[in-house]
Amino acid sequence: MDTTRITNIVFSDVDHADAPDYCDAFIESADIDGVAMTVEQLDELNEDSDFKYEALQKWLY
């Protein structure tokens, strides 16, 4: 998946007590090319732990 096309990421289960790992956080919704991602696409995106962590850091700060 080309993650450069992904925008409007929203996270859920962000527990600041888990910082800096945020092990329970996951991407709840996002857009790809301006269109809402499907559940299957979100599942695939959440499996990319490096992308998810970097996106979470941007989302938090």
Question: Would you write up a description of this structure?
Answer:
The protein is of the alpha+beta class. The chain has one domain. It is 34% helix and 26% strand. The chain is built from 2 helices and 3 strands; from the N terminus they run βββαα. It has a 3-stranded antiparallel β-sheet with strand order 1-2-3, covered by helices on one side. The protein is globular and about 35 Å long. It starts with 5 loop residues before the first strand and ends with a helix.
Structure summarized in a few sentences:
The protein has 61 residues and is α+β, with helices and mostly antiparallel strands. It has helices spanning 39-47, 49-60; strands spanning 6-12, 26-32, 35-36.
- Give the total of beta strands: 3
Mean pLDDT: 95
Structural class: alpha+beta
* CA-based gyration radius: 11 Å
**Distance separating the two termini:** 25 Å
In percent, how helical is the residue content? 25-40%
Q: How many individual helices?
A: 2
- Our estimate of the beta-strand percent is 25-35%
- Count of domain modules: 1
Please mark out the parts with pLDDT under 50 across 5 or more consecutive residues, or reply none. none
Global geometry: globular
Strand order of the largest sheet: 1-2-3
The arrangement of helices and strands along the chain is: EEEHH
What characterizes the major β-sheet? 3 strands, antiparallel
